[in-house]
Amino acid sequence: MTARHVGFAVVLAALLQTSAFTQGASMLQHGTSPLIVFRILFMTGAAFDPPGKEGLASLTAAMIGEGGSRSKTYQQIVDEMYPMATSVSWQVDKEMTVFTGTTHVENLEKFYGLVKDMLLDPGFRQDDFTRVRDDAVNFLKVSLRESNDEELGKEYLYNVIYAAHPYGHHNRGTVTSLQKLAVDDVRAFYRQHYTRANLVLGLAGNYPNGFAEKVEADFAKLPSGSADKKRFDAPRLPAGNRIAIITRDTRSTAISVGFPIDVNRASPDWPALALAVSYLGQHRTSNGHLYGWLREARGLNYGDYAYVEYFPRGMFQFTPDPNLARQQQIFQIWIRPVEVATGVFTLRAAMYGYDQFVRNGLSRDAFDATRQFLTKYSNILTQTQSARLGYALDSRYYNIADYNTCVRDALAKLTVDDVNRAIRQHLTTDRMQIVIITKDPKPFQDAVAKNTPSPIVYNSPKPKEIMDEDAVIQAYRINVKPEQLTVVPVERVFE
Amino acid sequence: MRSGKSGYAHLFEHLMFRGSENYTPDQRDAIMKRAGADTNASTNQDRTTYYVVFSKEDLDEIFKVEADRFQRLKYSEPAYKTESLAVLGEYNKNSAAPTQKLDEVLYETAFRQHTYAHTTMGYLKDIQDMPNQYAYSQEFYTRFYRPEYTTVLLVGDVTRARALELTTKYFGGWAHGSYEPKIAAEPPQTESRTAHVDWPSPTLPWLAVAFKGPAYSDETRDKPALDLLREIAFGENSDMYRRLVLEQQKVDDLGVDFGNHPDPELFTAYARIKNVKDIEDVRAQMLATFTRFTNENVDQTKLDATRSRMRYSFALRMNSSPAIAAALAPYILLRRTPDTIDKVFDLYRQVTPQDIRVMAAKYFTENNRTIVTLATKAGTK
Description:
The complex is a heterodimer. Chain A is built from 17 helices and 11 strands. By secondary structure, chain A is of the alpha/beta class. Chain A has 2 domains: 13-219, 2-Layer Sandwich (Cytochrome Bc1 Complex, Chain A, domain 1); 241-492, CATH 3.30.830.10. Chain B has 2 domains: 8-171, CATH 3.30.830.10; 193-376, Cytochrome Bc1 Complex, Chain A, domain 1 (2-Layer Sandwich). Chain B has helices at 8-15, 25-34, 59-72, 77-95, 98-110, 124-129, 134-144, 160-171, 222-234, 239-247, 279-295, 300-317, 321-335, 339-350, 353-363, and strands spanning 38-43, 48-53, 193-199, 206-212, 251-257, 266-273, 369-376. In chain B, the strands form 2 sheets. In chain B, strands 3-7-4-6-5 form a 5-stranded mixed β-sheet, with helices on both faces. A two-stranded antiparallel sheet of chain B has the order 1-2. In chain B, helix 9 (222-234) crosses helix 12 and helix 9 packs across helix 15 (353-363). The longest helix of chain B is centred in the N-terminal third of the chain and has 19 residues, at 77-95. The mean pLDDT of chain B is 96. The chains are: A alpha/beta, B alpha+beta. At the A-B interface, helix 2, strand 4, helix 4, helix 10 and strand 9 of A face helix 2, strand 1, helix 4, helix 10 and helix 12 of B.
């Protein structure tokens, strides 16, 4: 496997501090598989939506991935893809837009011919626009607001943390902004951002000699443009913890807790924090601390996890997709929905448990076990060609070496003291943003305003240490001022 | 499934992580953690599949741990009661989605005798009663966690000899059981059925049109013919998709579900409709599509393209060891050997346009049909 830079644009990596600003390159991973993977990456995304036109980056990608090219309608493209069982998927995040597709090598020429036209000569027809815009509006209004409470909470958490920041709207936009967009906006966004300066071509598999060069030559026809090399600052949050309660008619209560961190994959402390959140637990390992503490010991819900990188669509997948690289990331705890009666207890348990975690850090044994886990688990994250290619593109963005090598080398050097220092340094207890989705905000309002206790009743005897801990948790002060608790009706979210 | 006992196969997917004679849950977790393993499970109407993905140097130890829980699961009553709450938690996290309720009502309307009447997750009232059913859970384990119901599948850098050696070593002493489930055959449906779900919060309406279809077979053409038709009639380049999703834009999600099952299950077309006023029209178009293929032969070119699609689709899925295992496991459940995949793909090659018309006419009859709609309850804000 080799990564090779090609010369149709100046490679600036050496001149700039982070590779987020490098441009015009290819990531070629020639291998033995007859399945050929494309990851065509543009270094642009929702953070470049013009003000008032939130959702434009996503809509542009949707028009390319789910719309026609100039020479073929979307229906014609689907018809031609059909016997090959191929398709083009798109993903837009704040700073990255990626188009992915996999084909059997037997169909490579035909598949690529379609992909090339979709990306380089898009049709931008009005009927496609109406359809994909409807899809975006319905995604926000129905699929997210009304069908998936935990994802709603996690996404709204980002809106709260990044209010008044280019990251501050959902990648798909808002209901109001989408309704104002027109197909000409899509054309303008495409012209400005789908440029050689923003492009990185990713290709993997046993493609024939000369194929990569042909793709590079075709994509060299894009305008050279200028790179979307904006530096995004950390959001400035006022001191104090805050709660936003989204009210809707739902049978359970979902909780997300988070705050910005000044650490991303390129930072010296990233391995330490990655190990810390692996110890807390990630979807859907059953050996995480939060999972053991809230689900296995107390039966509160289906699982509880922590992350230091954006992880959308967690309901439907166990590991994050590649190509969601960002300059700014948050630490977050994902509490899966609990019964309404245990909502306040669970919030207290999460805050108490988190506080203990920050105070005490990891034991040496926990550190050793987690380090051993992560050293091998990185192979699982990168077991498909598509994932390896995606991780390599992300490593390029962060200007770090191959992900697996990087993780293994960093873990080998890491000590328990490094991890515990990083936890104390980066994980706050006084700027926490809490998002709760529930039917009735009152128990939370009472707990915040009057510190009303929230005792819990179990259906089976519990060990003494759990009961003792619960005695503390049930009256644990939720460190939020009453005026910092807001209630938001669901119809106002992403509106 | 006994009355009031829906969801226990799925409950076991949870209990199997609660310890065995030689490994407490903590010990098992520690071994999996040291191995950097990805381990989980899933359940559908007919099977539960447990998987572990790990590096090959840990093969022996992982085998040993896995074999212990299949033969010697051991969990206390308090641990059982707590774990049943995690199942309730799983129900809760899914409960916001209207499609969970749509399926629950669809299956209980279509099936009255067969256990397919309830969803894999089970009814909420049965899940809420699980904490009281410790003794039944042990009975369930003794019945079904037996070699006659189990296949061990290994994918990766391992030889057949080594796989056999380890299977014999760790599973060799496992005794057969004596329980044979008596799942009632579903009597032939004699009238079309409908149901409606009033959903308490805002949603786009859903429509499900289902017909009882044939069971899996690698010998007769019934199921393979309709497998091809599902793509032709409701896939992304079907006339139905072109009309409803691309041209009229009345539907934003058109799907079809027709899995491989040991007993006859449902062929279901689903649509999420953008405007409640279009429900009737979409229902009429959906029914017309089903009727159309009972009367006319599918286009030969389209049939050939569909065969090609199915072949490539299967190949494209197999891009890692766990993906290969996930592709094979459902077939192994049905026939205890992956050879059935070749047999069924042979049948796909043989199916003719006439076969498809004949099978459509046989199964897509009015008496065999169940229609369920779901829409926001009147008066919801």
